Amino acid sequence: MFAVQPKVLFSWMGRKYYLGLSSGSEGIMQVKLVQHAVGQGGLFSGQLTTQGTPLRWVYDCGSNQRDALRREIKTVAGGGDIDMLFLSHLDSDHVGGVDELLGQVRVREVVLPYLNECTVLAIMARDASSGALTGTFIEATNDLAIWFGSRGVETITFVVGTDEDDLDDGPSLPSDPSDGREGECSPKWTRPPQPATELIADLNRPDGRSGSVAMMQQVAHGAAVELLTPTGAINWALIPYVQLPSVKQMRAFEQALEDEFGTPLDKRAIVARAKDADVRDKLRDCYDALWLDHNLITMTLYCGPLSPQRSEVSFSKFRYHDSWSNKVGGWMLTGDAHLNSLRRRQRFLKFYRRVTPLINALMLPHHGSILNHSDLVLEAMPKLIVGYAAAGPNSYGHPHHDVRVAVNGHWSAHFHRVSNHRPSQLEMRVRMR
Question: Count of alpha carbons within 13 Å of 66, Cβ hemisphere only?
Answer without folding.
Answer: 3
